[in-house]
Each structure stands twice: as structure tokens, then as C-alpha cells.
């Protein structure tokens, strides 16, 4: 077991503050809210604090009354907290929405090549035949969770297929790092940058497969996932800064340190449970706590980022504002620390 030096009382207070601040944000039904509420759901799953669950339930019920948007890859990220709500309350309305999302992803979402989900952010054909690492968190990981719950082998295999092909298209075999996106029409990685948050999405979601899929080793594609994560983390540890963080462009010393990527990468290391990563997780823990304000804001989180044209495009993305994905990934990391100590 990985042993991290931390003050449990302070850590629990920090989680409380992040949850409180997150739920005061006016996030709509989209991926920022999906990642944020995933983090709050993870905090609930760990602590069983009823107030966390009630905060999510009240907000989701309000969204349902107001009317939900059309589905795309990004809006499916909200499915994660719906799983928690359904399991905690048994209310079928949450499961009905989950299955609407699964039907969309399985039967209607745009795909290319070997049935790979195209990344979409609206009802339009946003990025023709493009695979983005983001899709693994917003859709692939969600599909896997539902497939496991239903014991639906076809859905599990479809989810693992998303992992497999995103690995093939986005991971650089020489460095182990992931590119932000892949354009199947041009057969390239566009600007070809190792974007920090893309590596967060990849590492974190891959770390979840063996933890959530029973007998994962019986699925051939899991071997690719496991080895991909192994190679990625072994490279990422070498790119950690002196402050315990990772940069928005991982291998670019002129890029700023970015918290959502740092939280996701550190959480992946924690969830992967390789004791050789203990020193890097400890360093990340200290660095991340130094970037959380007393009122629960996760600081220095880059704004929403398309596949930019060049390094300056990434370097100049604002990091001045609180973001749902920063809140959510910080909660995912901090709860992973606590989970590891109670097992």
C-alpha cells in the first residue's frame, strides 16, 4: 500500500471546502459540471456525507425540471454523478437518463474507423473524424461503468474499444505521452502537442479500468490499457516540476504549471498503486494543496482548450478562473489518498 504523509483532519476540511465552493458554481449540464460532480460524487462515495448527496440531488432535480440539453460526447459526462444518485436513492428517473445517454453513445453518436467515438461538443459535426483524449472521461469511462453495472458484455467491449483505439491514435510510443488529438482525415496529430490535461484524462480513466472492471485481465484489450498506463506514468514522473506539479504542455519549460492536469495525473498514480510512485504522489499532494484557497477554489486551472495551433496557443490559455474540471479532479485526487489508506 502506498503511504502518503498527510493530516486527515486538514484533508477532510479541504474536501469540504472544495465541495462547498463547487456546488455554489452555476454550472450547466455539460462537461465542466460532469467532471465537477464526478468529484463531488467520489467525495460522497468515500465519506457517505448525506449533505454531499443532497447538494447533487437538488441540483440535478432542478436541471431535470428546467429541461435537459441534447446529447453529445461532452454532455454525457454528467452520467457519472447520475450513477451515484441512482445507486444511493434508487430513483428510476436517474437511471432513465443514464440509459438515454448510453443509447445515444451506442447507436447515434458520430463514429469513424473501427467504431471510434468522434469528439463532439454540440449537436453538430464539431471535429470531423477527430479523436480527443477528453472522450475517454466524458464517454468511454462512463460506458464502462454502466456496462459493468449491467453486466453487459457488448457495452463493456465497446468501452474497451474506445480505450484501445484512443491509445493507438493518441499515445506516442517513443515517449509514452499522449497527444491532445488525432485527425483521421489528415492522419496526423494536428499541432502534435503533449497537452497536460489530455494526459490527465488518459491516465486517470485508464487507472480506473482494473479498479472497476471485475476480472479485467480476462479482456485482451485490458493488457494494452495496463501497459499504456505503465509507460505513460513512467514518463510523466520525470516531467514533474520542483513544485510537485505538471505543466500545461508537459515538455515545455515555458508553459505554466496547471492544476487540473496535475490532479488527474497524481490521482492516476494513486489509483494505479505502484509503490515506486510514492515520492511523486507525495510531492504532488503538497504542491496541489498549496494551490487550493481557503474557500475551496482550485487555483491555476487552464480554461477550456481546443487543439491549439501552436505552443503559444496553449501557453496563453487563461488560468485565472475557477473551473469545474479543476474542482472535480482535485476531489478525485484527494479522495484517492483517503481511499488508499482505508483499504
Briefly say what this structure is.
By secondary structure, this protein is mainly α.
Written account of the structure:
- With 343 residues, the protein is mostly helical.
- It has 13 helices and 6 strands.
- Helix 6 packs antiparallel against helix 7 and helix 8 packs parallel to helix 10.
- The chain is globular.
- The termini are close together.
- The model has no long low-confidence stretch (mean pLDDT 97).
Helices and strands, with pairings:
Elements: H1 8-23, H2 31-47, H3 50-66, H4 79-89, H5 92-108, E1 111-112, E2 116-117, E3 130-132, H6 134-150, H7 153-170, E4 181-183, H8 196-212, H9 220-236, E5 246-247, E6 257-258, H10 259-272, H11 278-289, H12 311-315, H13 324-342
Antiparallel strand pairs: 1-2, 3-4, 5-6
Q: Which structural traits does this protein have?
A:
343 residues; mainly alpha; two-stranded antiparallel ribbon; two-stranded antiparallel sheet
Amino acid at each position: 500500500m502506498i503511504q502518503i504523509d498527510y493530516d486527515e483532519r486538514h484533508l477532510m476540511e479541504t474536501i469540504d471546502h472544495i465541495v462547498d465552493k463547487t456546488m455554489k458554481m452555476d454550472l450547466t449540464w455539460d462537461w465542466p459540471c460532469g467532471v465537477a460532480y464526478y468529484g463531488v460524487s467520489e467525495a460522497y462515495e468515500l465519506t457517505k456525507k448525506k449533505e454531499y448527496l443532497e447538494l447533487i440531488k437538488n441540483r440535478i432535480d432542478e436541471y431535470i425540471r428546467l429541461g435537459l440539453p441534447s446529447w453529445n460526447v461532452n454532455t454525457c459526462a454528467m452520467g457519472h454523478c447520475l450513477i451515484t444518485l441512482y445507486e444511493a436513492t434508487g430513483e428510476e428517473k436517474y437511471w432513465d437518463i443514464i440509459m438515454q445517454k448510453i443509447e445515444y453513445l451506442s447507436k447515434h453518436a458520430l463514429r469513424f474507423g473501427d467504431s471510434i467515438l468522434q469528439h463532439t461538443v454540440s449537436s453538430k459535426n464539431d471535429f470531423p473524424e477527430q479523436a480527443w483524449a477528453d472522450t475517454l472521461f466524458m464517454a468511454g469511462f462512463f460506458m464502462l461503468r454502466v456496462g459493468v453495472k449491467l453486466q453487459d458484455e457488448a457495452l463493456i467491449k465497446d468501452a474497451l474499444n474506445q480505450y484501445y483505439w484512443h491509445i493507438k491514435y493518441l499515445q506516442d510510443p517513443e515517449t509514452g505521452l499522449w497527444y491532445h488529438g488525432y485527425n483521421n482525415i489528415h492522419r496526423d496529430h494536428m499541432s502534435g502537442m503533449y497537452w497536460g490535461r489530455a494526459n490527465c484524462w488518459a491516465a486517470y480513466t485508464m487507472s480506473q479500468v482494473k479498479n472497476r472492471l471485475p476480472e479485467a485481465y480476462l479482456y485482451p484489450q485490458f493488457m494494452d490499457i495496463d501497459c499504456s498506463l505503465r509507460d505513460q506514468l513512467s514518463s510523466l514522473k520525470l516531467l514533474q516540476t520542483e513544485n510537485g506539479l505538471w505543466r500545461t504542455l508537459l515538455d515545455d519549460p515555458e508553459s505554466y504549471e496547471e492544476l487540473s492536469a496535475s490532479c488527474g495525473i497524481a490521482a492516476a498514480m494513486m489509483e494505479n498503486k505502484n509503490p515506486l510512485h510514492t515520492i511523486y504522489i507525495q510531492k504532488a499532494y503538497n504542491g496541489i494543496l498549496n494551490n487550493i484557497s481557503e474557500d475551496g477554489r482550485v487555483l491555476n486551472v487552464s480554461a477550456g482548450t481546443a487543439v491549439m495551433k501552436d505552443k503559444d496557443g496553449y501557453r496563453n490559455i487563461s488560468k485565472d478562473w475557477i473551473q469545474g474540471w479543476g474542482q472535480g479532479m482535485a476531489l478525485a485526487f484527494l479522495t484517492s489518498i483517503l481511499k488508499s489508506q482505508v483499504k
